[in-house]
Amino acid sequence: MSEVTIERRDARTPLSPAESHAILRLAEHARQADSSAALSEQFRLSVESRDDQSATHLLAYAAPPALAGYAQSRSGGPGEPASAEIVVDPDHRGAGVGAALLAELPADVRLWSHDSDGAATAFARTQGFVPVRELHFMGRSLTSGPAWPAARLPGGFAVRRFEPGRDEHGWLRVNAAAFAHHPEQGALGMPDLEQRMAQPWFDPDGFILVVRQGEPDRIAAFHWTKVDPPGGPVGEVYVVGVAPEHQGLGLGTAVTVLGLDHLRQAGQDDVVLYVDQDNTAALHTYRSLGFGDLQVHRQFARP
């Protein structure tokens, strides 16, 4: 095992711009080698912003001094363990870098793997971790394949687009309620929303809201679509949510279809999405709309 030095960065000692750049370069090197994302969006955004209060960054240096690996740990929700992602430079694998990073993480941490059977999954299993959560990465063509039905809203509802400066607080309330049991999505706050709205891909025209007629600020359901890079051929069902008091009315399917219509009209060829294995209702909806699995991401924990 090569000598590995671990440096910690957090809210008190944030990442420097040079460190942030080195981590993103490392993640891209790993992505090219593994043909899968090394860091998920939230973890990557925390590296870019460098001031995420809930993130702890671990940088592993090998001799000669070089960034050989990186890990990020994020606090979970109330009663939830921390979650983490580990990236090891392909040129430094097999030298104990991943194990050194893991040793600095909380004992009950849960590790994400964004490949189905690649390096991250193999590492988790060799460290004695077992899968405890699955996230389906699904997709379909917007120009061929089974047709989806027309969007049908029940009476008393209308459709409009998200308006920056007007809808932030209302959307955060509905999102928190709709994803109250989701450890990542339900915990989003104003800084998270503002960070996403500042991204080059943010387009309020693709942020679809279903509201009560006569109460245009009362959001009943939403579908936030995403095209990254902007103008690219692939769109994403970024987030779909329904306020708890309006569930069971078919709003989820209707607003999903409205988003698919928007992406097709905008010129995208394909669409992808992420959905938890235990969200059986959403899985059923997406499969009925012609989506199929492209990959399965897994979260691992010590038994």
Helix content: 25-40%
Shape: globular
User: How many angstroms does the end-to-end distance come to?
Assistant: 26 Å
Annotated CATH homologous superfamily of the largest domain: Gcn5-related N-acetyltransferase (GNAT)
Uncertain stretches of 5 or more adjacent residues: none
- Rg, rounded, reads 20 Å
Give the number of DSSP strands. 12
How many domain regions? 2
Quaternary state reads single chain
Q: Which sequence of SSEs, written as H and E, runs from N to C?
A: EHHEEEHEHEEHHEEEHEHE
CATH topology of the largest domain: Aminopeptidase
Brief synopsis:
With 303 residues, the protein is α+β, with helices and mostly antiparallel strands. It has helices at 17-34, 41-49, 97-103, 119-126, 168-178, 190-197, 251-265, 280-288, and strands at 4-9, 55-62, 66-74, 83-88, 110-113, 130-141, 157-161, 207-212, 215-227, 234-242, 270-276, 292-301.
Structure description:
Strand 3 (66-74) and strand 4 form a beta hairpin. Strands 1-2-3-4-5-12-6-11-10-9-8-7 form a twelve-stranded mixed β-sheet, sandwiched between helices. The chain has helices at residues 17-34, 41-49, 97-103, 119-126, 168-178, 190-197, 251-265, 280-288; strands at 4-9, 55-62, 66-74, 83-88, 110-113, 130-141, 157-161, 207-212, 215-227, 234-242, 270-276, 292-301. The protein contains eight helices and twelve strands. By secondary structure, the protein is α+β, with helices and mostly antiparallel strands. The model has no long low-confidence stretch (mean pLDDT 93). The radius of gyration is 20 Å and the shape is globular. It folds into two domains: 4-128, 3-Layer(aba) Sandwich (Aminopeptidase); 139-295, Gcn5-related N-acetyltransferase (GNAT) (Aminopeptidase).
